[in-house]
Amino acid sequence: MFQGSDRIVPGADGNSAAGPKDRKGQTLSMNRIIVTGGAGFIGSAVVRHIIGGTEDAVCVVDKLTYAGNPENLAPVSGSPRFTFVKADICDREAVDPVFSSFRPTHVMHLAAESHVDRSIDGPGEFIRTNIVGTYTLLEAARKYFSGLDEAGKAGFRFHHISTDEVYGDLEGPGDFFRETTPYAPSSPYSASKASSDHLVRAWNRTFGLPAIITNCSNNYGPYHFPEKLIPLIILHALDGKELPVYGSGLQIRDWLYVEDHARALYLAATRGKPGETYNIGGHNEKTNIEVVKTICSLLDELSPRPDGKKYEEQIVHVKDRPGHDARYAIDPSKIARELGWKPAETFESGIRKTVVWYLRNRDTWCAHVLNGGYKMERLGTGGGNI
Questions:
Q1: Fewer CB atoms inside 10 Å of the end CB: C or N, the chain?
Q2: What is residue 14's predicted lDDT score, i.e. its pLDDT?
Q3: What per-residue string of b and e applies to 276-296 under the rule 16 or more CB within 10 Å gives b?
């Protein structure tokens, strides 16, 4: 379905600043951005934003694991500025040719294992992808960067996308994660992301690789793989299944609409200062039970149950996740002040858009995703292989 699927846009030799060309063979003079994990939830939102809202060229590098879905990129796959390469970021022999042929000005690194429950059941893949994969990509970027001329080096950026979960959890209700908050990861997932953050900072300081880090709060929106809370609750509700809420459901998260996040990431990559970290949050603190009940209320309005009952009657409280953090909340004032970003969506507007999207795509995108190996089963009980 991709134009240029599994291939790289022809570039120039290793000493040239030339990159992708248009259909007439003319060199395109825009940013050339590698997006790792670009077929995933957040990565595909970034790609759709870049292709739809800028003149830049994008090369997606994605292994297409269970959460990487080519359908997420269908809206932009016909663009001459879009290229796709199926590759594992842990495979240096696959990664190096992407740099040498595409000639990027920016790398936006989103490829990661990201589900806390999966990290509890099988932490090994998180260590491999999130730590070893980031190291491999950093080394490929360092080699490429060392061969650029001074103008190329001045414009090059390596943008590492991370999570607020590296900070652990917050105790006081008035406290927030800031760029200076000490790291205290709680899960194998957040520990692996914390490790990758430290690698990026080390490559910036030791080797001079111009790197930027962003840490975000919980994302939600269209194309979200249904192992995560919001899409899982929507689809379980519509299927008449129980709506599982961990423990009391009073865990607090700061919710960020994915398209707002995509805009922030592009700003950080193209206008952020090397060596800096930017926290990105949505100003939307909600308890998990509040989120679930909001979804139920919207479904009552938009797609009522045939029996006339309320979706909220399907809620059940289940055993809590091991090591579950109590509260996350981000102070995004730095990115607002320095880069002029603020979220366009409130939680109320964003969650309505999200529910409507899943209702419209239940029989297409959702059905295709659930035709694979994932059946929305409970994960994260700690019962994985040891």
A1: C
A2: 31
A3: bbbbbbbbbbbbbbebbbbbb
pLDDT tens-digit readout, 203-229: 999 999 999 999 999 999 999 999 889
What is the pTM (predicted TM-score) of this model?
A: 0.89
Element (H, E) at 231: helix 229-238
Q: Is 93 a catalytic residue?
A: no
pLDDT of residue 40: 96
Which pLDDT score is estimated for 118?
Answer: 85
- Dihedral of the alpha carbons of 45, 47, 51, 54, in degrees to the nearest 10: 80
Q: Of 135, 144, 167, 189, which one is the catalytic site residue?
A: 189
Residue 220 appears among annotated catalytic residues: no
Query: 261 vs 34, 68, 113, 160, 381, CA distance in Å?
Result: 18, 18, 18, 14, 30
CA distances (Å), origin 294, targets 308, 312, 334, 381: 18, 9, 30, 26
Domains annotated for the chain, with CATH where assigned, are: 32-223+256-283+323-345 (3.40.50.720)
Residues in contact with 21: Cβ distance below 8 Å, sequence separation at least 6, in sequence order: 9, 10, 27, 28
Query: CA–CA separation, 191 vs 180, rounded Å?
Result: 17
Q: Which of 62, 113, 117, 164 is catalytic?
A: 164
Is the separation of the CB atoms in 321 and 120 below 8 Å? yes
Q: Pick the catalytic residue: 165, 169, 259, 325? A: 165
Q: Is 62 a catalytic residue?
A: no
Q: How far apart are CA 17 and CA 102, in angstroms?
A: 10
> pLDDT at residue 383 above 60?
no
What tokens does 36 get? 């790792």
Scanning the structure block, which residue is given the tokens 């001329």?
Answer: 149
pLDDT score of 381? 44
